[in-house]
User: What shape does this take?
Amino acid sequence: MRTTDPGQLSSGNAVQQQAHLVFDRMTRQIARVSKDAKPENVHRFRTNGRRVEVLVGNMSPQDANTRKLLKRLSKLRRKAGKVRDLDVQIAFLKELKIPDRQNHRAILLDKLTDEQQKQSRKFVRSLDRAAMRKLRKRLRKAKTETNLSEIDPLKVAFSRLPKTGQWPLNEKNLHACRISAKHARYLAELCPDSVDAKLVVGELKKAQDEIGRWHDVLKLTERAQELFGGVRDSALVSALENINHARFRRAGSALHSALKAISEIERRNRASVEFRPQPAESSARVAAA
Assistant: This one.
């Protein structure tokens, strides 16, 4: 008769409980953002939506409910993301202290504020009661169908990450690495009792934060260039370019450090699994054979 390692069973239960929490948090956030689409609720809606997308996309049966849920979440998350990005860019510009004789900073700030209000209205209109009721129903169904009791999300997280030294970093692949890091981090978060998972989450969060700070300035720089031209045409563009380059270097360094540390964690994790002692019953059976 096959027996189950109590440690594995306990770990599987913890992972399953954590997955349920992801669905429950998203359901609560739908209610909050539907009542009040203030910036913090929009941001949490977007973040929790991404967590559900990663969980469902990697761990749930890929049936009609999953496809429709992912499609709906993706649309809403993108709309929320536009609002969040504009909020961050507006806050950054307000705090940016540079000479602005051309008045470019004020002009850009006005345009971003107008666009933020427009995108906020679009997002709120997408939160109608019927649509949110259907979304909650699909979330409940996905929650019941998602079984992680025999899955190691940390192992899946390792497989989602790029390896160090595969290619030189540029703006395009650094942003792609940020998305991969998010996916891997959200998967690792499903292992609340794993020391290795906590270390991976910590390393990825540090890298994500640095890459995110760079990417926010990159998008703002591109917007300023569209309006005002290059560094010779605008003091604002020149200042943003300098900040962009500095943050790109920090982001690349943070990513490299995180991937290097995680590579060592993965190696250690793999070794501990390969050399894990057999349960007493299994060892006795081998000896008897």
